[in-house]
Write a structure and sequence with these properties.
GMP Synthetase, Chain A, domain 3, globular, about 20% strand, about 35% helix, 17 helices, 4-stranded mixed beta sheet, alpha/beta, about 500 residues, 11-stranded mixed beta sheet
């Protein structure tokens, strides 16, 4: 009965969502007007002349682009329990996230914004049900591995991780099927938690698993080890679906499928404490539907202009396919001109679909090349397609002062399975990188850089690194790119780099 009802509900929701999909520009215009009208009597609204704003051009005049640090004095007042600062009243929750130079960030969640977080996660599943007509997974057990649902009190406001806050809003019809138990979910130490999750789930009829890819891999490896079975498929015979978010799934896909023992349907999502931005609404493509009716007015700054004094700042109607933009949010949680730190690339404008192409802070441009996450991921993926290998994790850093020869990009890669010929693989990776980024190509051609160098990371090296900095588990992940040697040097100091592997066919 549950599976049948899910199909009917899915059909209704998909039809409803289609209204704003068919009317994207007007939807965004309406949201901007609503946000301004709603917040005009707040401290921020008064200081930024919201009562005088009628158009997007006027909005840009009065509201500048800021990151968390730039708005921190407003956030501090919100955290202190003051009302009507960035949004009317007080937020219902504060989502605590790590990052920034000043330590933890506290992102407000309001009674207006929370429903969009909850409904978007639900709708991603409903789109899948509607398209595939597969709803049988709702009858089995599901893992939604989340941060601890225990919330702290801070000046009368409830504080926790977004995933922990979300756990309080899981609908009743999913609660019965849900694992792990509350007792396991509140465990803070990640390795202890994963071991407990394995204990609780190894004998369950698991049909859906949700988590970020590095966590999924860690969980699957332990499951296989504990069970003594060949792969995850032989443990969970009815496993049908995975839901991931937080990072691009593509670099992990092969490894995940290998651990499972077969290909499995996957829904990619783009949730953030700042708002639920996009999800995959079809299995036919890998890109994500940008959610234009989610209480968020989006702005975009071309990546190659971002560090200019006066970069171009546009709204949805002016974006171009194939171009990378820094994503700027204005939300019904009171974020204004907010640089979330991510870069996106449009793959379609009918409807508006994106891929997350990287982090504006995570890039390599020690030589003026401005390589971003999407480019290194694409280069690696295309290399693996030609010369098969299995990669657990990787990160890239510049080597500006090598002991000999020209500077280069150093790729620190943890292989699960080496390519048959390492030298051929590395050469192809360099070639693919040149195809991805013309500035990088110019630097190679002009003998400014030598071809990239691959350093081989020990098994579980990335986990060991994250553990060493106290960030193993949760939503934490190693940046794909750095513009300095901080991370790379730490790998060497921790002895996580293997001695140089000679290029033989036997590796």
């Amino acid at each position: 009965m549950k599976a049948f009802l899910a199909k009917i509900f899915a059909k209704r929701i998909v039809k409803k969502e289609q209204k704003w999909i068919n009317d994207p520009i007007q939807t965004q215009d309406r949201i901007l007007k609503e946000l301004i009208a709603f917040a005009k009597n707040t401290q921020f609204g008064k200081e930024h002349h919201f009562d005088q704003i009628n158009t997007y051009e006027e909005f840009k005049q009065y509201v500048s682009v800021n990151d968390y640090e730039g708005l921190k004095h407003y956030f501090d007042e919100v955290v202190a329990g003051k009302a009507d600062i960035l949004w009317p009243g007080k937020p219902l929750y504060l989502a605590k996230t790590s990052g920034t130079t000043s330590g933890a960030k506290f992102i407000p969640l309001t009674k207006e914004s929370i429903p969009y977080h909850i409904n978007s996660a639900r709708n991603a599943l409903l789109y899948y049900i509607h398209e595939t007509q597969n709803s049988s997974f709702v009858k089995g057990k599901m893992i939604f591995l989340q941060g601890s649902p225990i919330l702290e009190d801070k000046n009368g406001l409830k504080v926790g991780r977004l995933s922990g806050i979300s756990a309080h809003f899981v609908p009743n019809y999913l609660q019965k099927n849900r694992l792990p138990s509350y007792e396991t979910n509140i465990i803070e130490d990640w390795e202890t938690k994963v071991d407990k999750v394995v204990d609780e789930t190894v004998n369950a009829d698991m049909t859906l698993i949700s988590g970020i890819p590095p966590w999924l891999i860690m969980y699957f490896e332990r499951l296989v080890k504990v069970s003594g079975k060949e792969n995850v498929q032989s443990i969970f015979k009815n496993l049908q679906l995975m839901v991931t978010g937080g990072v691009n799934y593509e670099p992990y896909r092969e490894k995940v499928n290998q651990l499972i023992g077969r290909k499995i349907d996957c829904i990619q999502t783009y949730p953030a404490s700042e708002g639920f931005i996009a999800y995959q609404n079809t299995q036919k493509t890998e890109d994500l539907l940008l959610l234009l009716n989610n209480g968020i007015f989006y702005e975009f700054i071309p990546v190659d202009e971002f560090f200019n004094e006066n970069p171009t700042r546009i709204c949805l109607k002016d974006v171009e396919i194939g171009k990378d933009y820094v994503l700027i949010l204005n939300t019904n949680a009171g974020l204004w001109g907010y640089n979330i730190g991510d870069t996106v690339r449009f793959t379609s404008v009918k409807p508006y679909r994106i891929v997350v192409s990287g982090r504006i802070k995570h890039y390599t441009s020690a030589f003026g090349e401005h390589v971003i996450g999407h480019e290194v991921e694409q280069a690696l993926q295309r290399t693996i397609e030609q010369f098969p290998a299995s990669v657990n994790e990787f990160t890239v850093a510049p080597q500006v002062n090598p002991t000999e020869g020209l500077p280069y990009h150093e790729w620190l890669i943890e292989f699960d399975q080496l390519p048959q010929n390492v030298e051929v693989f590395v050469n192809e990776l360099n070639l693919q990188m040149r195809k991805q980024n013309t500035y990088y190509d110019d630097l190679i051609t002009g003998n400014i850089l030598q071809p990239l160098v691959v350093s081989f990371v020990e098994k579980n090296g990335f986990q060991d690194y994250m553990k060493s900095i106290g960030k193993l588990g949760g939503q934490n992940k190693v940046p794909r790119l750095s513009n300095n040697r901080e991370i790379a040097d730490e790998f060497y100091q921790l002895n996580l780099i293997k001695p140089k592997i000679e290029n033989t066919h036997n590796n």
